[in-house]
Amino acid sequence: MNIKLNQSQANQKSEIKVTGSKSETNRLLLLQALYPNIALENTSNSDDSEVMAKALTQNSKPKTQNLQPEIIDIHHAGTAMRFLTAYFATQENREVIITGSPRMKERPIKILVEALQQLGAEITYEENQGFPPLKIKGKKLSKSKVSLPADISSQYVSALLLIAPKLENGLELTLEGKITSIPYIKMTLAILNDLGFEASFVDNTIAVKPKLIIHNSKFIIESDWSSASYFYSIVALSDIGTEIKLSSYKENSLQGDSVLSEIYKNLGVETTFENHQIILKKASDLNQQSQILDLNEAPDIAQTIAVTCFGLGIGCHLTGLHTLKIKETDRLEALRIELQKLGANITVTDDSLTLEVSSVTERNIAIDTYNDHRMAMAFAPLALLTDIIINDAEVVSKSFPDFWNDLKAIGFKVEKQ
Fold first, then answer.
1. Sequence-separated (6 or more) residues with CB below 8 Å from residue 66
2. Of 306, 238, 247, nearest in space to 272 by CA
3. What is the signed CA dihedral for 47, 52, 57, 58, rounded to 10 degrees?
4. Any idea where the Enolpyruvate transferase domain is (predicted)?
5. Which residues are annotated as a binding site for 3-phosphoshikimate?
6. Catalytic residue list contains 300
7. Distance from first CA to last CA of the chain, Å, rounded?
8. Beta strands 199-202 and 145-149: pairing type?
9. From CA 300, how far away is CA 265, in angstroms rounded?
10. Beta partners for 269?
11. pLDDT tier at 66 (50, 70, 90 boundaries)?
12. What are phi and psi of 303, to 5 degrees?
């Protein structure tokens, strides 16, 4: 399905309820599988979280010599691949093969597999060394010390931390090198601590103590800040006075992407926290200077920011983006190709993006999405400036299934093709 977005104007005032954070939900679903006394509210309705939940509740059969391993297909869900690899490594007497889409089979997982093997896990590669699919024979892991490079993906770290309380002797994890996406690691640790687990992070060492059971506990999941980014972009590209109210959000958020409220100040958007909601208001014309930002701790909002700057006719230099090369697509290259279609002057390297001052010069351009939900949503706000087509628009269901309906609700002209 493609979506045609005819040039639109956002309503002066709108209100949207955003689904629960995918990042928080997937962490808590895994913990809930390990500790069933955990109750969850405001879980994400994203494809990724549904895939995660399905895999965790898939019927397991006692292993005998005559039974084939269970097949767990996580499609495009990278977080699920990392988290479930760690989870199934701890499930005694279970044997599974975790697989996914063709793109998933190109996304590296060797660092996590080797870390789990240091703990005693039994994991082998079914096809290419270092990549899914994986065959995992679950077993009791009694070793407790492990180290891994921390400059590739914070999801490897979080995967280990989430299973740590269930390990017989807990976990002492040493991170080597510069740590990527620290807020996501801190999110995992904060969730563990909020639920009563003992976890500490000192220098480059994280320690989690074992805990066999926890008492009944309820966790209310905050809405997704990454999803909020597209509304920040819309407000930034709208007339002064435009307001969008989003729920449910916390001023002391665990999510690294909450840095949006600071970044978008320079793009003319003011954020007010009020009764678990955020009110985004186009308060002024933007600071005309090019934006220079290190997004090492919030790389998922890079696409949104680059498109916003292009729409505003200003430049930007974004760094700390090395993890974007191994996402659903090579997001840096995808951004370069699609922004150039619209008239942008943009260059990318392995870890940065530079957008020169340029403006929209083309109309009715079809934007390819590369099986990447963030490509579809990051480009949609440009419909405030020109007619645009989003190819394979259903890809948004990976993280934000209601996105196109929510755009209609705030005044966008959305046509299915």
1. none
2. 247
3. 80
4. 9-407
5. 22-23, 27, 153-155, 181, 300, 327
6. yes
7. 6
8. unpaired
9. 18
10. 282
11. low
12. -60, -45
Determine the pLDDT at residue 152.
81
Cα–Cα distance measured from residue 145 to residue 74, given in angstroms and rounded to the nearest whole number = 29
Helices in 58-195 by DSSP H: which ranges?
78-89, 110-118, 154-163, 182-194
Q: Which of 263, 259, 185 is nearest to 23 (CA)?
A: 185
Q: Model pTM?
A: 0.86
- The average pLDDT across 9-31 equals 96
Q: What is the DSSP string of 10-65?
A: --SEEEEEPPBPHHHHHHHHHHHHH-TTEEEES---SHHHHHHHHHHHSPP----T
**Cα–Cα nearest to 99, from 84, 89, 114:** 84
Region 3-20+222-416: CATH code: 3.65.10.10
**22-220: what fold?**
UDP-n-acetylglucosamine1-carboxyvinyl-transferase; Chain (3.65.10)
Binding residue numbers for phosphoenolpyruvate:
22, 78, 107, 155, 331, 374, 398
Place of tokens 């290259």: 333
Write the single-letter amino acid at 275. Answer: N
The pLDDT assigned to 65 comes to 55
DSSP annotation of 364 reads: S
What is the rounded distance in angstroms from the CA atom of residue 264 to the CA atom of residue 248? 19
In this structure, are residues 72 and 96 in contact, taking their beta carbons and an 8 Å threshold?
A: yes
Look up residue 368 and give its DSSP letter: P
- Three-state DSSP at 350 gives coil
**51: its two tokens:** 């895939």
Please, where in the chain does CATH 3.65.10.10 lie? Answer: 3-20+222-416, 22-220
Catalytic residue among 47, 257, 300, 368: 300
CB atoms within 10 A of CB 415: 10
Across residues 152-170, what is the average pLDDT? 95
